[in-house]
């Protein structure tokens, strides 16, 4: 469908559209784009201007249009430019169309059906002319467009990203319409008939797809089961798009059974999509999806596996154990070795880089995952728990085998290339990972939502010796766990960045203990800081470059110590930081690379409202105007003499006016001294401050215009804060010369 054909459709649908009901807008727009737009596009593609012929065959929809049928034909033929202008003018409303009358929907469906009949008749005639013995049924089942023009593509072809998440609102909308007293009942009937026809046409190809069903809700006795095969219609889009690169099949919430797929269907359908690189699968009909994956989609790079049942992983474990296993005491097999050779019978995926799991995972599942997907770089797990009772004997057999020393040669460790690990809930002791003989020597980033006990956290850090970034949401306190003696713990020199949420540590003692064993910490994003934490950072983390926090601390007297001790500090951003101006003038800062500082300078005298009014009235006495209230938004201000006076007008001033002006010059002198001290020892050269009358507590954000946004040694730029003002908002103070 071209841009020139769209205005005709918009003009024909205009009387049936209402763009004021936003809720209906969202529902019908989703339904329109997912189902009917394909049929409408096919109708437009069948012929250049089919609406004149199609409208002549239906009498009842015509009076609903504002123009007679002849005028519509004239508009389509004579003034396409005006319709194109209309489309360009109201193009943003295309995505918000609301179909208020079922006749329009039936018109689209009937138009498509009639156009298909015409095309099929033409194809049959052409086929009979070429080969009189050819069967018309065989020709009809083929694509009606390939026989006419090889250059013309099928409707909805060329899609590279296909997401089926829209089915949930579609089903909700259809459920609301599926009522006996609904005026849209013909619309639902036409939709059901169309989809059932598609089901019959695609039955040989869609044998492994479970249809989607839903019931009526108004009366249990009169309820009828409607088999609306929306899943099959969506799979038709998959079949029509060989260039597909990303396919999203779930999850769908209450309708998560919509796409129950089987390994047979994936093998016969998706295996031909050589460009498919990312797949999201919701619910699995069988348990062989992960087992078949290496042979079905060997070119896949990203997989989101949203099935909540661990049956698929159990099948993967059993499959891998057949090739990598040793006999246990009870006759079973257990995975004890790493990847050996390519002739061992194990099917692997060398291209998979990302794997997202929702189902509860166990250490034995991890072993099978890393064997089947050796190039995995990022793994996301919902819950990591200990092995169940069924795996107890196998784990015992492993332990006994290692103790006896009978299988030391065969139980070689598996070194993974995993770089990033996300775990929502870690419910097993980290030491259990050693039982599966996996070395995580390449993990650089760990995102952990919940873990029980500080000792388990330290054990986890030992499991990942190359860990550089830790994101932690909460450490659950254990009542039976004694306080950890961090002085006896080893250092973690590789860990350079920590990001902690609100409830990560219940007491400052635990956080201080963790900071004490991180000598090379560069970036710290904390929820709040106090004097103890700042002192611990100054003492144990001398290489700190970026410090961010989100909650105003109760005590922050150590901020001056941080600025005068940490030589590598580049940024210190957080609410509630205060620095008395004598601390800035008395002791020089050592952070030469400081580029951003969010703080309040306190202790500076301020003018009362009466004094501010006096200064405003005295502006005419200066050779240059003074912008008031006094601000400090200048790249550089030369220090002025506080005793400056205007000799021509000074004798005419009142005594109170002279006093106010001297006080104003004194305040300005203090600010200039502070600015000179900061710009002398740091890279800060711009001050942006909240607009308020000058007071003893004024928040400012000091930034550097020389280097832009500060970047830590880890290569991550700082987040922009809401207190940063643009350069166009900066104001200048015009001082008398």
UniProtKB/TrEMBL annotation:
The lineage of its organism: Eukaryota, Fungi, Fungi incertae sedis, Mucoromycota, Mortierellomycotina. InterPro entries: LRR_dom_sf. This is F-box domain-containing protein. Gene3D superfamilies: Ribonuclease Inhibitor.
């Amino acid at each position: 469908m071209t841009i020139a054909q769209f205005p005709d459709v918009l003009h024909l649908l205009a009387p049936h559209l209402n763009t004021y009901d936003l809720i209906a807008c969202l529902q019908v727009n989703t339904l329109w784009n997912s189902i009917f737009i394909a049929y409408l596009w096919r109708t437009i593609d069948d012929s250049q201007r089919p609406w004149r012929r199609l409208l002549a065959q239906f009498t009842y929809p015509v009076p609903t249009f504002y123009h007679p049928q002849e005028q519509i034909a004239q508009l389509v033929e004579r003034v396409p430019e005006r319709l194109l202008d209309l489309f360009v003018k109201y193009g943003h409303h295309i995505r918000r169309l609301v179909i208020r009358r079922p006749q329009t929907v039936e018109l689209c469906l009937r138009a498509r059906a009639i156009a298909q009949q015409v095309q099929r008749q033409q194809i049959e005639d052409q086929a009979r002319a070429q080969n009189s013995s050819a069967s018309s049924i065989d020709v009809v089942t083929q694509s009606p467009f390939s026989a006419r023009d090889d250059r013309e593509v099928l409707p909805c072809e060329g899609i590279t990203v296909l997401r089926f998440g829209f089915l949930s609102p579609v089903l909700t909308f259809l459920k609301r319409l599926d009522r006996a007293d609904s005026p849209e009942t013909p619309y639902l009937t036409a939709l059901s008939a169309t989809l059932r026809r598609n089901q019959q046409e695609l039955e040989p190809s869609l044998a492994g797809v479970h249809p989607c069903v839903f019931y009526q809700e108004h009366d249990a006795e009169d309820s009828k089961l409607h088999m609306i095969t929306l899943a099959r219609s969506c799979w038709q889009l998959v079949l029509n798009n060989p260039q597909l690169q990303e396919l999203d099949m779930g999850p769908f919430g209450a309708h998560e059974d919509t796409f129950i797929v089987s390994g047979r269907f994936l093998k016969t359908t998706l295996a031909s999509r050589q460009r498919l690189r990312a797949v999201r699968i919701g619910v699995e009909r069988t348990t062989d999806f992960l087992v078949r994956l290496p042979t079905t989609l060997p070119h896949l790079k990203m997989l989101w596996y949203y099935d909540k049942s661990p049956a698929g992983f159990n099948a993967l474990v059993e499959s891998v154990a057949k090739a990598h296993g040793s006999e246990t005491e009870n006759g079973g097999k257990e995975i004890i070795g790493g990847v050996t050779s390519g002739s061992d019978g194990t099917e692997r995926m060398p291209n998979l880089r990302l794997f997202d799991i929702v189902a509860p995972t166990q250490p034995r599942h991890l072993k099978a995952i890393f064997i089947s997907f050796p190039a995995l770089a990022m793994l996301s797990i919902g819950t990591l728990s200990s092995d169940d009772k069924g795996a107890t004997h196998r784990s015992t057999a492993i332990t006994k085998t290692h103790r006896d020393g009978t299988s030391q040669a065969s139980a070689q460790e598996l070194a993974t290339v995993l770089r990033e690990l996300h775990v929502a809930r870690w419910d097993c002791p980290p030491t259990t990972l050693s039982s599966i003989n996996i070395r995580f020597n390449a993990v650089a980033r760990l995102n952990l939502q919940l873990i029980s006990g500080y000792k388990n956290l330290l054990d986890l850090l030992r499991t990942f010796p190359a860990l550089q970034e830790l994101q932690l949401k909460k450490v659950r306190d254990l009542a039976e766990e004694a306080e950890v003696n961090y002085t006896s713990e080893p250092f973690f020199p590789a860990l350079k960045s920590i990001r902690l949420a609100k409830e990560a540590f219940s007491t400052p003692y635990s956080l201080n203990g963790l900071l004490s064993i991180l000598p090379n910490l560069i970036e710290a994003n904390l929820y709040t800081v106090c004097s103890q934490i700042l002192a611990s950072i100054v003492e144990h983390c001398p290489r700190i470059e970026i410090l961010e926090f989100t909650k105003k601390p109760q005590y922050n007297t150590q901020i001056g110590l941080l600025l005068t001790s940490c030589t590598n500090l580049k940024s210190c951003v957080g609410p509630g930081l205060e620095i008395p101006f004598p601390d800035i003038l008395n002791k020089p800062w050592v952070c030469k690379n400081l580029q951003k500082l969010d703080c309040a300078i306190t202790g500076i005298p301020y003018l009362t409202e009466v004094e501010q009014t006096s200064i405003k009235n005295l502006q005419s006495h200066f050779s240059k105007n003074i912008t008031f209230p006094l601000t400090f938004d200048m790249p550089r201000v030369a220090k002025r003499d506080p005793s400056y006076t205007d000799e021509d007008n000074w004798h005419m001033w009142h005594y109170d006016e002279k006093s106010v002006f001297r006080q104003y010059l004194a305040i300005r002198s203090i600010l200039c001294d502070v600015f000179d001290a900061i710009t002398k020892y740091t890279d800060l050269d711009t001050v942006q401050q909240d607009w308020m009358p000058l007071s003893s507590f004024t928040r400012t954000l000091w930034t550097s215009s020389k280097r832009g946004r500060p970047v830590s040694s880890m290569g991550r730029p700082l987040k922009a804060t809401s207190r940063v003002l643009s350069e166009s908002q900066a104001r200048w103070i015009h001082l008398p010369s």
